[in-house]
What we know:
With 347 residues, the protein is of the alpha/beta class. The chain has helices at residues 32-49, 65-77, 94-102, 126-141, 160-173, 190-204, 217-229, 245-253, 264-280, 283-289, 318-322, 329-332, 338-343, and strands spanning 21-26, 55-60, 82-85, 107-110, 120-124, 149-154, 178-184, 209-214, 259-262, 292-296, 299-307, 309-312. 49% of the residues are buried.
Amino acid sequence: MIDSVGGSSSSESPKKGDDITVGLLLPDKDTARFEKFDYPLIKETVASLTHDKGKIRYANAEASADKQSEQLDEMISAKVDVVLVDAVDAKAIGPDVKKAKDAGIPVIAYDRLAEGPIDAYISHDNELVGEVQGRAITDALGSKAATSKIVMINGSVADPNTARFKEGALSELKGRVDIAKSYYTKEWLPSVAKAHMKDAIGSVGLSNIAAVYSANDGMAGAVIDALKDAGATKLPPITGQDANLDAVQRIVAGEQLMTVYKSFLLEATNAAKMAVLKVQGHSIEFDALTEDSVDSPTQKDIPSMLVPVVALTKANIKDTVIKDGVYTVKQICTEKYASDCAAIGLK
């Protein structure tokens, strides 16, 4: 049960009541979590916090910065009370954020740090995400790390998280492994990641690739497809992020080393709380949720909440996504993965 906001701890009079509209802009549908978890969780939390009077106006940009700009303009025209935006392109969205602010609509950056005059930001410690991924690779390679060639499949340059993931990963990888090839992947598209991996195989040689740093699960699946297409019979350690169901199944099967599990529940529900508190004018509670601080290229000291992350491996599936109710054993352990699940005691 989600607690109601705006209790006796704040002496301020709410700016608005429960009849509010929260605009939610998510970036793509290739990342399974956005449609499957983030949107439903935010919708449910807003409803609970507003006694079922608050509404969500939702749009998905399907990896198009231009489309997202149009969607934010539509939100402004519709006079939503607050906007949660997960930017396709953090820089490109800046002028639209300013337009919303000029119209008196607060903007909260969700998952990715947008440019422009945003009111708050909620995400994860994204350098830590990269560190966790990089450490997983060096741990897996062990004493062979120093002589190992790895390939880095990074995310989109338009996403500011990409640089932070990469920086965190390099803090673990640089000087410890040989980074043979490194790519940025337009709009995080798995098809582009697969093309990058094919290029790396041609350049480095299939048998010479000791590990692959993949910044997320969608791209990890594409990397695995490329390796199999090239004739790989034993896959090297491959990282991921987002705990997509198919990625968890690949981990069970031993095809993917790990994924970074970022609690969708914590991020989405707290984002919804921040949005409602901001609109209703409960500044004390809002400040309590945003005790961290980050800088964007256009703004300093943005009130923020950074949600913890964990490396999900075969060893802790029960204690992460199953315990949190993200997936059931039945969803993970389909007929194809039944024997692999049994081997690790997942039943």
